[in-house]
Design a protein that fits this description.
The structure is a homodimer of 146-residue chains. Chain A is α+β, with helices and mostly antiparallel strands and 146 residues long. Helices cover 37% and strands 25% of the residues of chain A. The first copy, chain A, contains 4 helices and 7 strands, in the order ααβααββββββ. The first copy, chain A, has a 3-stranded antiparallel β-sheet. A 3-stranded mixed β-sheet of chain A has the order 5-4-7, with no helix packed on it. In chain A, a hairpin with a 5-residue loop joins β4 and β5. Chain B binds a DNA duplex (30 and 30 nucleotides) through α2 and α4.
DNA sequence: TAATAATTTAGAACTATTCTAATCCGGTTG
DNA sequence: CAACCGGATTAGAATAGTTCTAAATTATTA
């Protein structure tokens, strides 16, 4: 079946990612990897991924989701986005890009890197090197027009 | 004395800010306002401002610092900066500008708005209006050269 | 001065996250 | 196949930052 083929290809990919990161392909990491990397890019919080994994029938603990997302981040498989003083968000798209953020709903929409041009970034304080540039465009629902 | 003159001018300014925001000029709000708006622009967290106020001899509670910073934010006297999933940061500079952020130390350095040029911001999702654009340039200490 | 409404407060409650120490694998070795 | 080893996982406790609550205080108005 096509469905199975696609799935097993995705599982292969997750296996490769884990191997590449030097992480043992455990049941839990495979399940989370499948959710994160099985299709389109994703934005998740620890809690949201945990709920999703549970709903999908995976048997794992919240602590494991925290551990795994942190390991994935160290390995460069996901990146963290700072939006909210309350919660950690992770993005499976580790390439250069930016975000629209809807504060009311927490929704995140990607902005391709090349649609924002940063001109003449001033040099960082002496002795420091630029790690990354994060652009967050905060948006809110327009009041309904009269 | 020049010192006193400067101080009382600053206090006048804080009073005006509070009046303008419709907030009663209580002892606590005046003390916090003096720390925040008495000189250069500041970056503070609730806890850091609380410690500072206490060190300066103000007698107030942590809850009041939280309340006050929130009220000041609603009134547009300070703005919140999202840097860190752990802590809320407030900036007394409410004009358009951006930040260098040193993750290791938590230090923040302003970047003037005009030194970053954002070209061709894509239009936001349908029905949404742009509230603000936050640019955070994350930097880290360069490894010492050999 | 009394009435009132807003403000402040201590401490409890809550939320997200990290820590801890015990248990559980998965892969190797004898 | 059994014993072993080190990493992975786990439940639950601990922590940090923040918010909530209800009572006491304070500023303003009448």
């Amino acid at each position: 079946m096509t469905r199975d083929r696609a799935e097993s290809a995705a599982n292969e990919r997750v296996l490769d990612m884990l191997r590449g990161a030097g992480l043992k392909p455990t049941r839990q990491r495979l399940a989370l990897g499948a959710l994160l990397f099985g299709g389109e890019h994703r934005h998740v919080s620890c809690e949201s991924l945990f709920d999703e994994a549970r709903a999908a029938g995976a048997d794992l603990s919240l602590a494991t989701v925290y551990n795994t997302l942190h390991q994935f981040r160290e390995a460069g498989l996901v990146r963290e986005v700072h939006l909210d003083a309350q919660r950690r968000w992770f993005d499976t798209n580790v390439g250069e890009h930016h975000h629209f953020y809807v504060e009311e709903s927490g929704a995140l929409v990607d902005i391709p890197a090349d649609s924002i041009e940063i001109k003449a970034l001033p040099s960082p304080p002496r002795g420091f090197a630029v790690e990354g540039v994060d652009v967050v465009v905060r948006v809110r629902a327009k009041p309904a027009r009269k």
